[in-house]
Write the structure tokens for this entry.
Amino acid sequence: MSGNADALLKVDGLTRRFGGLVAVGSVSLDLRVGEVHAVIGTNGAGKSTLINMLSGEIAASEGRIALERSDITALAQPRRALAGVGRSYQRNTIFAEFTVLENCRLAAQAATPRPWAFWESAARCAASNQAAHEAMEAAGLTAEAQRIAGTMSHGAKRQLEVAMCLATRPRVLLLDEPLAGMGAEETERMLALLSRLKASHAILLVEHDMDAVFRIADRITVMVNGTVIATGAPESIRTNPEVRTAYLGDEAPA
């Protein structure tokens, strides 16, 4: 895919200032269905601030965010989520004492509250149950539906976080270090999941595992000190002299 006409989420000149500090400076990028767009950079590069602005948790100082050409820059996080922007976090945000199904159902209910149905058991909400089951299937967790979330492996918990995000039925997925702390087998399962999800979602991936990034990403944006120094296909990023000097070092990933 190419061209801004294909962009599901488009960001122009996004800037965030904290007093005199420019944490993110005039970042522009676009996310498209069918692509994993990775954002990489050293600690302090502005990646977390960027993803927080895209999700609506931090307001932008300047710039514009458009979802299918509709300006969502001023929308708070709950309204942005309802519009189709979902995200995961660096730290586990699951309900450890509940089952996998219950975690997904709670996420679905949060996305579609029904205050008028206060007499109805939440567990009997057909729409929430359907969304939860669809999310578990997409994330490869159907067989774990009745498992207590707190007893799962670290990698499975990260899968559950993605499933909970999917239960809100987003079109855009903002994934903040989903591979953190994973072993080799768990990483493989997550990469396979992302490969499946990109067919129906626009995915932004913030990640430090460079081997995984260069395997899964269709495009990569490199940030240094809050600004973008390069955006392009993995091979162009791998061979970019400025990127090699600023971030990848003398030896780019094989």
